[in-house]
Amino acid sequence: MEERYAFIAEWYDANASLTRRYQFLYFPSDNAIEMYDIKNRRIFLKRSKFEAIKPEQLFISSVINVHSRQLTLVDYADDFTRTKLTNRTERTLAIIKPDAVSKMGTILDIIANEGFSLCHVKMVRLSRKAAAEFYAEHTGKHFFDQLLDFMTSGPAVAIELMAPNCIRKWRQLIGPTNPAKAREESPGSIRAKFGTDGTRNACHGSDSPSSAEREIGFFFRRDHSNIAQFSNCTLGIIKPHAVASGLGGKIINEIQAKGFQISVLEMFFLERANGDEFLEVYKGVVSEYTQMVAQLCSGPCIAMEIVAENAPTEFREIVGPSDPEIARHLRPHTLRAMFGKDKIQNAVHCTDLPDDGVLEVEYFFRVLQN
Ligand code: UDP
Ligand code: MG
User: Fold this and answer.
1) Which of 5, 126, 167, 331 allows an S-S link to 26, with CB 3.0 to 4.6 Å?
2) pLDDT for the residue numbered 295
3) Nearest-angstrom CA–CA distance, 282 and 290
4) What is the pLDDT of residue 86?
5) Quick one: average pLDDT of 121-131?
């Protein structure tokens, strides 16, 4: 029988204010999909080629845009799919702790090079209460207070990672808890390279499947307080094609190396209507408008509040001309020259007008977050 993967997919129909459920089939042989409306018991989308979809997008909680509808894969629909994908799509919770946030670009680049993919990313600032809850297993230990002081000392970046054998693989990559020991036993590890002492050890990794599930829920299935500052800022977006090619870390590294502060960062999944609304000022002005919207909604993007004096103007300078070909000739050290492919897939969006910096940050970190 032909190989096919079956999922239950949900789509929130805003017009009808209800969630619709589909059986979602994927056929690797010709990159085709088919959808069946579960409630109405009929074919919703006949089997058809769907070039935009990649096998890497087939995992539980993945968000996939199909003809302007944002579907979430909520469950497996048969045992074949479950057996085949459960191990391959194991998840863990990684944290770039406050001491290493200034190196997050480098660390995210290591993560990409080691073959992990990013399911969710969110910069948060933990309250003492939240940190105590996260580390509840260590309550009362001699280092507990010091650990809470450290974890609440600044923002941290929570990441839901996915890879085969993800939990063990990530623990191995970060190395022993104590950086001094890591430097002896596993000098290539992240804690060996970026950790300072027994408390400030750069990264966290879940230690078991049950911890991973609890910890992913802790960061990604509940609200955390908004840490955007909404002043002296501009918006940067790492576009979906660049996120999908694992370029996020390299781009963030460049931004950090050039002295910009990234005060908030989060992965977003834009619906068509949001992409349209956000890019509306370009409608009728830029001939590639429709493709720009399609690119922005084609998969997860990473939005950042970037803080600096004259942030919109200064950040625009390092992003470079909108056409990467032109950028490579005129401004070879700009982000678009380095990471862009063409005018649509030009790696990074930045706010155009100085007055719009705060507004664009608000669109992502106020409007979309609610
Ligand atoms: N920690 C500490 N002193 C210790 C042991 C741990 O400050 O003696 C901190 C350290 O930041 C560590 C965290 O507490 O990462 C959680 O400790 P655990 O033993 O769970 O280590 P991990 O799972 O993070 O490797
Ligand atoms: Mg632990």
Assistant:
1) 5
2) 96
3) 10
4) 93
5) 97
Instruction: Evaluate: CB of 336 within 6 angstroms of ligand 1.
Output: no
Q: Is 200 in the pocket of ligand 1 (CB under 6 A)?
A: no
Residue 147 CA: which ligand 1 atom is closest?
A: 7
Instruction: Give yes or no for residue 203 CB within 6 A of ligand 1.
Output: no
For residue 333, what are its two tokens?
Answer: 């050290």
What are the residue ranges of CATH 3.30.70.141 in the chain?
A: 91-220, 233-367
**Among all chains, which residue has been given the structure tokens 């997008």?**
57
Judged on CB neighbours under 10 Å (0-12, 13-18, 19+), 33 is buried
Domain 233-367 sits in CATH at 3.30.70.141
248-269 pLDDT tens trace:
999 999 999 999 999 999 999 9
- What is the model's pLDDT at position 68? 84
Beta pairing partners, 167: none
Which two three-digit tokens encode residue 154?
């600044």
> From CA 206, how far away is CA 163, in angstroms rounded?
14
Q: Taking a C-beta distance cutoff of 8 angstroms, is the pair 159, 192 a contact?
A: no
Alpha-carbon distance of 242 to 208, in angstroms, equals: 31
Q: What is the pLDDT of residues 177-233, one digit of tens each?
A: 999 999 999 999 999 999 999 999 999 999 999 999 999 999 999 889 999 999 999
* Region class of 333: left (phi > 0), else alpha (psi between -120 and 50), else beta: alpha
pTM for the predicted model, two decimal places: 0.95
- CATH fold, domain 91-220, is Alpha-Beta Plaits (3.30.70)
